[in-house]
Amino acid sequence: MEYNHLLVDNSHPQICLLTISAPKSLNALNLDILKELNTFIDHLDKTVRVLIITGDGPKSFVAGADIAQMQGFSEAESLEFSRFGAGVFKKLEDLEIPVIAAINGFALGGGCELALACDIRIASENAVFGQPEVKLGIIPGFSGTYRLSKIVGQGLAKELIYTGNNIKANEALRVGLVNTVVPQPELIDYCLKVATDILHAAPIAVKYAKKSINENYDLSAKEAIELENQYFSKCFSTKDQKEGMSAFLEKRKALYINE
Ligand code: CO8
């Protein structure tokens, strides 16, 4: 598949490194890029077990939705754009494999929302986060009001969204918006290491763990616990569960076959 704004690196076995590339606008997301992202997710090779997403260049992950494109939108066009972008991000969140955001600079507006839709957020020291939409006369439109509140809590999400103020990487780390902050030259290697650690685990178990965490999002405690019980028990019908436990007891390394 050929893309104008996505660079796809499949050189690491079972890991796909996707770079969003629109350097003239600090990788801002326009409709074409969102469509490419949508197609990319739909056609992601089944052999890929971890996806890493980053932005092109040393300055920006994604500096938001493309303001120049949005400027003239009618209410109906903005609804369509917002629904489409939110749908793409939901599809990303629902991918059966873990997605790591390698946040290499500005993650503003739609860029912060893209990171929020990923499973794991790792930032470089120069990363900057924010939902500056109110400064443009709008609100987050790619599910930021929902996911930011879930991840950092409503109180801080409200402050960030009402003020439009940005926070730096270390503050994002302190409030749990990112898991780790590393020097920029080490960012991709660090993400590849996390991805490799995931590759060493049983693939179906990782998939069920992701499903259990994501699907319990809006459930009651009782429903969420039952859901986990169900996915837990489903693991016992896999060959990998038998291999994982046998390998432990036989004091050898497990060889998983994704079955
Ligand atoms: N959209 C379009 N162009 C952008 C964007 C953007 N989001 N961000 C940067 N650019 C462009 C600049 O216009 C500039 O272009 P040019 O060289 O032609 O003048 C180029 O990128 C470089 O940017 P700067 O010169 O501004 O670089 P600085 O280092 O001075 O500043 C900043 C970097 C702080 C990132 C600054 O560019 C900035 O504030 N950008 C806008 C950030 C922002 O407000 N993002 C939120 C956008 S709204 C949004 O994401 C809503 C999501 C939901 C949409 C729902 C749809 C209905």
Keywords:
259 residues; alpha/beta; 2-enoyl-CoA Hydratase, Chain A, domain 1; Lyase 2-enoyl-coa Hydratase, Chain  A, domain 2; 2 domains; 6-stranded mixed beta sheet; 4-stranded mixed beta sheet; 10 strands; binds octanoyl-coenzyme A
Quick rundown:
This protein has 259 residues and is an alpha/beta fold. It has eleven helices and ten strands. It starts with 5 loop residues before the first strand and ends in a 10-residue tail after the last helix.
What does this structure look like?
The protein folds into 2 domains: 6-199, Alpha-Beta Complex (2-enoyl-CoA Hydratase, Chain A, domain 1), CATH 3.90.226; 203-249, Lyase 2-enoyl-coa Hydratase, Chain  A, domain 2. The longest helix is centred in the N-terminal third of the chain and has 20 residues, at 75-94. The protein has a 6-stranded mixed β-sheet, with helices on both faces. Strands 4-6-8-9 form a 4-stranded mixed β-sheet. The two termini are 28 Å apart. The mean pLDDT is 97. It is built from 11 helices and 10 strands. It has helices spanning 31-42, 67-70, 75-94, 110-116, 144-152, 154-163, 169-174, 187-199, 203-215, 221-235, 239-249, and strands at 6-12, 15-20, 50-55, 60-62, 99-103, 106-108, 120-124, 128-130, 167-168, 180-182. With 259 residues, the protein is of the alpha/beta class. The protein binds octanoyl-coenzyme A (CO8).
